[in-house]
Write the structure tokens for this entry.
Amino acid sequence: MKKDNEILKSLIANGTIGANLSALISKKRGVGGSLATIAREAILATFKANEKAKQTHVPFLVKESNALYEIQADGTKQFVKNIEKPIIQLPNHFKLK
């Protein structure tokens, strides 16, 4: 549990987790308490899965802005391709049937 708190604090400190989300996950009880617990556990699970993936020494892909990069096991980043933003106009309201 102590290590989990240290992970969350470091993610907040380096800006990985924004102010609104950090305020949410710091709630203990009351309104939003259950949601805070779910958000906290999801963030920790994502972080831990990412760390385990890095240990496999298999290259993985990341998206930054509109570009796709391959990250090698040694940490080097290689550009793969540009990604076009989809031009999809979704309606503001939906009818459920």
Q: What stands out?
A: The helical segments are 2-13, 19-25, 33-55. The two ends are 45 Å apart (CA to CA).
